[in-house]
UniProtKB/TrEMBL annotation:
PANTHER family assigned: ARMADILLO REPEAT CONTAINING 2, ARMADILLO REPEAT-CONTAINING PROTEIN 2
GO-annotated biological processes: sperm axoneme assembly
Region of interest: Disordered: 62-99, 137-227, 550-569
Name used for this protein in its record: Armadillo repeat-containing protein 2 isoform X1
Cross-referenced Gene3D superfamilies: Leucine-rich Repeat Variant
SMART domains given in the database record: ARM (SM00185)
Organism from which the protein derives: Cottoperca gobio
Lineage: Eukaryota, Metazoa, Chordata, Craniata, Vertebrata
Amino acid sequence: MASMERKQGICSPFIQRRNTVRKTSAEIVSEARQSLRVQSTQRPFTPRDGHRQLFGKSFVRADRDNRPPSTFSLHAQHFDAPDSRPGSGTRLSPLDHKPNLPVTCDAQDPFKAFPRPPTDPLEVKRGLPRARARFLRAGSLTTLSPVEGHMDERLNPGPRQKQPSAKGLPSTDHSEVRSGPHKPGPRRTASESRIKQPGIRPTECGAGRGTELRNGDTTTSTEEDSESLVWNNTIAPLLRQLESVAAGSNEGSVDHLCDLCEGLHGTLAGSDMLGRRCKRRSGILRTLFRLIDLNSAQLNLHIAKLCLALCISGNNLLNICKLSFQISRSESNDILFHNNSIIDSFLGVLSNEDVSSSGEALLYCVGTLKFLSGNNAILRLLLEKNCIGVAQNLIQRLCTAEDTNFTIAGHILVQLTATLRNLADHPDSRPVFISFSILSELDVVLRHHRRDPDICTNVSRIYSKLSSYSECRLALAQTPDCYQLFLELLSIHHQKQTNCTLNKDLVVRFLFTLGNLTAKSDDARQQLFQCEGCMDMLLQLYVTYQRRDDSAHPQKGPPSPSGPQASAVSVQEDEDVLVKLVRVLANMCIHPAVGPALATNTPCIQLLMETLELKSVQESEELLVNVAATINNLSFYQEESSVLRRSQLTISKLMLKLLLSSSMDAMLEATRVYGNLSQSKDVRDFIMQNKVHQFVVTLLDSKSTEMCFSACGVLTNLTLDPPNRLSLSEEGAAAKLVDCLRDFGAGDWQLAGQVCQALWNMIGGGSEKLLDTQERASLLEILTTYLDEEEAPKWIENEDMRDYHRACWELEFLPVAQKVMKMLQPPDRTA
């Protein structure tokens, strides 16, 4: 009976298929450890742009020449001072209603007369309807103070503004027409609906001059008196101080001007005059715009903040966003943004402006945030101010933009996805990304802009960063059809500009993301494999990059025109694609339905073998390690139809260069492959004939438990053949196995069980003499200690792991150790 039991144990291969009813976690881990392994790899490195530009050097959009510029000049003359209302951009017809008003001119009150129309017929055609409409809207205002009339003048007044028609009346000059005619009466626009800025009520930005004075009651009169009092006592003096500096006075430094702007901002906020509520708003803006020519970044940022608080729109909003963008291009100015609440204003612009009317302003505003998010301190500030939530809202609006705004929406998304890419670096951003469903929103972005390599690359960088974390992987995996979308994007972009670094970045990162998704989830492995054209796409990529990588290798042809350094970089980029692609294959074949299918896929096996043949460990270590891991996983499936099974001798020869290399990772994976392939008699003969067994025995001296475990697996299979036992004993295998058991057994019961299995195969069946007396005594002592049911589990210091180790002790070590112990004991003690 004992003989039959021993014989059955000797014939058992290294990879055992158990049929136990009770399957513990230890058994599951053991099976995975002996057979299929998930491959990990480093996330692709994303270098930061050396220069802050709206679109980096790698920008490859088809409309490259029409993209908005990163450099421009801004001066006071570029701004429109009387920005009381934004123009609609549509020319309106004159009003049909023509009231009959008295036109008598009273010498005592000359302001009761209408201003004379221009004598030029062209001026009559263009100016009169607008002047009449404006006069009727402000009909309750019969006189204006000289100060207010002064404030309504343009920054650069033309000759027509100085005509007598401007005496104390609402301005009828053509400077207002430059911003575009608009409908009579106040109209709320996107820029007028900002309500998140400090000191601004929800109705401020929509309040026009006509609505302020429409009801001539006591309350309105009181408000006017109060505003006039604040204006005369506080605001006007502040403006005069600011204007004196703009005119060349030496009253104060830049710091003093910044203090004045802060004081002006605080006064307007405290008096409820921010937004469009202040009647003299145009005068404030004109003074602020003049200060821009002083060319101080610190001052200009204060000006920008105050202008945004005054709800500017149109051309002024665009220029202020450009001004902020210009300041943010220099990293030395980051501290100015950190110490300024203007970031709240930027987020307000993103929340409320419409892409159809303020698309370019949004572009430069998001571009500013992109630069600032490269600063760690400001990045943290952006997270605190809910930048990710604002970005989600903007993404939704951009993805639903009309076709006429598709191009500018794409430009904005390039900046916005780059900003999110930077935010994804911060660990605190991950739960926020999930709570706002940013990963699924980005999936929508990819579907709308799937042919835009800049947007797709930025999103791929976000996915590659976040998919390294379990909670983000789960959120991404739950996005409908994300696997099919990734395959489509790989198909689109790997064919375009194959030498373009940006496309390689995109390809390598989507492959890295797929590798992360399939690393821990069986559902992900199956879903990806079942996608239409999955294997065709992956193998097409494999062929493309392996062939190009091989042809571009520096040693296989003349140096490239761009120099050996550029050629080496290109080769490394191509190889990185292969590393991530092979990792996906290695992870996919862990699934019990996918693995057998891949094992019978002839092109797949041939490409893996080709990689082993073409590459060297010194130059392509990670790639060859991943290929070996994939082959190891596939070798688990030994069906008759397996292509790998028919090629196992060729693979065994190719594995020699990994085993004999100086790379410990390569040696480990090669040993694992030999552990599976050595179930075949032909492979065992190959190992012995090529003296591979000598090297495997030396691996038992390794300090790595993984290396020892894999080496024991190979020896377990080699000792199935009686002739091999003596050869292994002559190499000192038995003694090294005993040493390995003593050194590592108590901390790793799986390894201890594998050592005992190798010893059982080696010295069983009448081969006990292969152990000398000292080795036998040492082995008995070790086993006696390890088989103590009360003491053995106590050697694990981590109490949380004791149950796990006890399960391993019971399942992996105890059965085979008892067999070895019984064999070693003298006959009189077994009676």
